[in-house]
Design brief:
This protein has 14 helices and 5 strands. With 342 residues, it is mostly helical. It has a 3-stranded antiparallel β-sheet, with no helix packed on it. It has a two-stranded antiparallel ribbon with strand order 4-5. A hairpin with a 6-residue loop joins strand 1 and strand 2. Helix 6 runs antiparallel to helix 7, helix 7 crosses helix 11 and helix 12 packs across helix 13. 33% of the residues are buried. The N terminus is likely disordered.
């Protein structure tokens, strides 16, 4: 196979993928970028062998739910990879399509890949079922910010989800733990094993937080007051997790009427697990997720998300075996295999 025409479809796709890698540099780890490239090369190899793709026809139209599902089955049946690895490869292709979907014409292909269900992993029974993005949005919409209780729970849900905090970590926050007058506002929380870590605020969450503090704590908050305090006991009385979960169940029951993705039984820990799962689906490296979660061991994170140790070991080996890495590939005039474009 030769590529003498620079306008062929595969070259155009390769350039788009190269732009994706370039945009990911600095925001994603080398391990993550290597994973993107590996998944794309495998998909190109599959397309060439089983879908009769070549440099004249391999383009974004191959990224359909049907073709990618066949690709994942090929990985499992022919390549012998685990269900966990299939899930990882799917997430990596989704990350590329998400980037490419800035072009409205590509958006349907990204949405098509979103329809593919993750493989059930052998660690499934140990993993907390994550909430969908739609379910979380429905819960926050139901609580709202117009009422005192609604504002409180909208903020609490936002902190549990966007900051990957545990319930006790959130409920233990005092005003003095907040650092809001910095370039990147954050809060210091104490997690399991009495280990402190830093969690940063998203802009939307920060806006809700400031509104909440002004309403609940006034213009001169007491540094020792709990951020979320028990109404019955005052600002120095800690809220019970049981009471919070009870109110979350009330909002969930209401939200379920407009969003069927909201489960019947909801627990605060699902928010923390959900953001970790969504980050993995978006192509974020497991090492970065582990750091955000405050896990001491990456293996803990892998079990948490249903990721095997071998996946991380393989990723590390790929990094160590690559002496020089260039984001921009060199497209030679004579390409013998489609995967060599990526």
């Amino acid at each position: 196979m030769t590529t003498t025409n620079t306008n062929n479809r595969a070259i155009a796709l390769a350039k788009l993928f190269s732009a994706f890698l370039e945009a990911s540099a600095g925001r994603r780890s080398d391990c993550t970028i290597t994973g993107y490239r590996t998944s794309m090369r495998l998909f190109a190899s599959f397309a060439e062998q089983y879908l009769h793709a070549d440099t004249a026809h391999f383009d974004i139209t191959y990224f359909t739910e049907h073709y990618v599902s066949r690709y994942l089955q090929w990985l499992q049946d022919i390549k012998g990879v685990s269900p966990q690895t299939c899930n990882l490869r799917l997430c990596q292709l989704r990350a590329f399509l998400k980037y490419a979907s800035k072009d409205p014409a590509i958006m349907p292909y990204y949405l098509s890949l979103r329809q593919i269900e993750r493989y059930v992993t052998e660690n499934r029974t140990k993993v907390v079922e994550p909430l969908s993005r739609a379910a979380i949005a429905a819960l926050m919409k139901e609580s709202g910010t117009d009422t005192e209780t609604g504002l409180r729970y909208t903020l609490l849900i936002a902190m549990l989800y966007t900051m990957a905090l545990r319930m006790d970590e959130v409920l233990s926050i005092r005003i003095k733990d907040l650092r809001l007058d910095t370039v990147k506002p954050y809060v210091t929380v104490v997690g399991k094993g009495r280990k402190a870590r830093t969690a940063y605020f998203y802009k939307a969450t920060l806006k809700t937080l400031r509104k909440y503090i002004a309403r609940e704590h006034g213009s001169n908050p007491n540094p020792d007051a709990y951020l979320f305090y028990a109404k019955s006991g005052g600002q120095f009385s800690k809220v019970s997790a049981r009471g919070v979960n009870k109110q979350l169940a009330v909002y969930a029951a209401k939200a379920r009427k407009s969003c069927t993705e909201v489960p019947e039984h909801i627990h605060s820990h699902q928010f923390r697990h959900s953001i970790a799962t969504h980050m993995l689906e978006d192509g974020i490296n497991v090492f970065q997720i582990s750091k955000m979660l405050g896990h001491e061991s990456v293996e803990t994170t892998m079990t948490y998300l249903g990721v095997t140790v071998s996946m991380t070991d393989n990723a590390i080996q790929k990094i160590e075996s690559t002496a020089a890495r260039s984001i921009k590939p060199v497209w030679k005039k004579n390409i013998r295999k489609l995967q060599d474009l990526f």
